[in-house]
Specification:
The protein is mainly alpha-helical. The chain contains 5 helices and 2 strands.
């Protein structure tokens, strides 16, 4: 899953730790989500979108579905 968290954080001049505190997770969780190593739960994805005053679709983009060959 792709996301725009790093860009949105930079626009507000928030560190990963500050965003993590606002949504109630660790800084490492934010780092893993930003770098595509971890997909957040639906409730966490909504919480992240909420702190940026955005719709979830404006923050996260799902990967294209895989098709059988």
């Amino acid at each position: 899953m792709k996301n725009k968290i790093r860009m949105l954080r930079a626009g507000r001049r928030w560190s990963q730790a500050e965003l993590a505190g606002r949504v109630g997770v660790s800084r490492n969780s934010i780092n893993s989500i930003e770098n595509g190593r971890y997909n957040p739960s639906l409730s966490l994805a909504f919480a992240i979108a909420d702190v940026f005053e955005s719709r979830i679709e404006e923050v996260f983009e799902r990967d294209a579905p895989k098709r059988d060959a």
